[in-house]
């Protein structure tokens, strides 16, 4: 796939999508988000892809929406274009797991993009923040809602109101990221996690993603009912029979996504 602002590589059933606007610290412009949406849709439909890793450079995952592109826009333009909604909805439609590997800055829309992934592994040099307040605006692609659910009201208010950055240790402590690893190991660790996911039954993997995401969309009671029903339904799959038989026969399961 030939893109100008992202690089896509597929290896061992894992696709790595690298944001690639080094001169702008991977700031998210319309071109990049359009290409990202297109790539993710294509990878979601590709049988050779079972897990997707989204990453940036060692200096920046993404330093936010592109301020230079955005600065002269009017309310009418922002509203009529429904600024970044179609592109970000495309990311949220991906049914395969998307893991964010974050090094350096994940600010504004960059932090929001990482939070739209299924989980975040970050390097020790990662810095998360929602500094839109310094520009006289607020987060625009989910940051006030998602950060609050990740880290709670007090810390989310602190981040959005002061615009301060959170380092990797604080991000792990507050539940924003699942793991912190040395910068040199970021891709190795993330690829190992992605390959592990790629080995599982893809049906069960997609059901996990749907079920965990459901916890953000509904009440606890409804979420638990949803989980119970999809759990029951997995007993209609060959992968469930194979997974449990393999356990009892003390061998590795061979999942066939059936
Ligand atoms: N948009 C456009 N360009 C950006 C950018 C952004 N968000 N962030 C960095 N750049 C550009 C800089 O303008 C600079 O380009 P030039 O060399 O052409 O001047 C280049 O990337 C390197 O940046 P710096 O020289 O500033 O690098 P630094 O190491 O001194 O600082 C930084 C790094 C702290 C991340 C700083 O660049 C910064 O504060 N960037 C803006 C962060 C921000 O405010 N993000 C929120 C954007 S709004 C948003 O995201 C809204 C939303 O929710 C949708």
TrEMBL record:
<dbReference type="GO" id="GO:0006635">
    <property type="term" value="P:fatty acid beta-oxidation"/>
</dbReference>
<dbReference type="Pfam" id="PF00378">
    <property type="entry name" value="ECH_1"/>
</dbReference>
<keyword id="KW-0456">Lyase</keyword>
<dbReference type="GO" id="GO:0004300">
    <property type="term" value="F:enoyl-CoA hydratase activity"/>
</dbReference>
<dbReference type="InterPro" id="IPR014748">
    <property type="entry name" value="Enoyl-CoA_hydra_C"/>
</dbReference>
<keyword id="KW-0443">Lipid metabolism</keyword>
<comment type="similarity">
    <text>Belongs to the enoyl-CoA hydratase/isomerase family.</text>
</comment>
<dbReference type="InterPro" id="IPR001753">
    <property type="entry name" value="Enoyl-CoA_hydra/iso"/>
</dbReference>
<keyword id="KW-0276">Fatty acid metabolism</keyword>
<protein>
    <recommendedName>
        <fullName>enoyl-CoA hydratase</fullName>
        <ecNumber>4.2.1.17</ecNumber>
    </recommendedName>
</protein>
<comment type="function">
    <text>Could possibly oxidize fatty acids using specific components.</text>
</comment>
<dbReference type="InterPro" id="IPR018376">
    <property type="entry name" value="Enoyl-CoA_hyd/isom_CS"/>
</dbReference>
<dbReference type="InterPro" id="IPR029045">
    <property type="entry name" value="ClpP/crotonase-like_dom_sf"/>
</dbReference>
